[in-house]
Amino acid sequence: MGLLTALAGGAGGELGRQAWTGLGELVRRPFRRGGAVVPEGSAPEGSEPEGAAPEGSGEAELARLARDPGDVAAARALSVVLHRRAAADAEFEERLRRWDEAARRVSRTGGDVHNSISGGTFSAPVIQGRDFTGITFGTSPADD
Q1: Do residues 47 and 70 make contact, with C-beta atoms less than 8 angstroms apart?
Q2: Which residues contact 100 (CB under 8 A, 6 or more apart)?
Q3: Is the model's pLDDT at 52 over the cut of 70?
Q4: Model pTM score
Q5: Which end of the chain is more exposed for a tag (fewer CB within 10 A), N or C?
Q6: What string of H, E and C letters represents the secondary structure of the chain?
Q7: 11/22 Cα distance (integer angstroms)
Q8: pLDDT score, position 4
Q9: What is the pLDDT of residue 131?
Q10: Cβ distance 48 to 54 under 8 Å?
Q11: How confident is the model at residue 53 (pLDDT cuts 50, 70, 90)?
Q12: 5-34 burial by CB neighbour count: b if 16+ within 10 A, else e?
């Protein structure tokens, strides 16, 4: 649930936004029940109004969490629906698992970087950014 609320709230910058968008695309995929595709806007046994998402698709819960990212109950409801849908649809389960693996790599602390340099004279390159890994810095011998 923490991952869902973090992504809904904009954590992870651009990668977080992409993960949230990916979840929306996954939830809106055709809903399968018992191997049969339930077309968008149609409900099993006529139980839902025309144009509504199939019950349990996760669209309503996703929209609710998007409106209020801090709503833990909305995150819990979305999580429950995703798990139920995964249990009923093997293809959805696999896609949800892959989404979850990718989304967990998104930083929950946000992706914004605000760097500034003021005053002084710099005689070497200045590199600004966030979360650098595998970078080495070296200098050339000074000319005599």
Answers
A1: no
A2: 3
A3: no
A4: 0.60
A5: C
A6: CHHHHHHHCCCCHHHHHHHHHHHHHHHCCCEEECCEEECCCCCHHHCCCCCCCCCCCCHHHHHHHHHCCCCHHHHHHHHHHHHHHHHHCHHHHHHHHHHHHHHCCCCCCCCCCCCCCCCCCCCCCCCCCCCCCCCCCCCCCCCC
A7: 15
A8: 82
A9: 63
A10: yes
A11: very low
A12: bbbbbebbbebbeebbebbeebbeeebbee
Pick the closest to residue 23 from 92, 99, 84, 98 (CA basis): 99
CA atoms of 77 and 8, how far apart (whole Å): 14
d(CA 75, CA 62): 8
Cα separation, 79 vs 84, in Å, equals: 9
Q: Does residue 89 register a pLDDT over 80?
A: yes
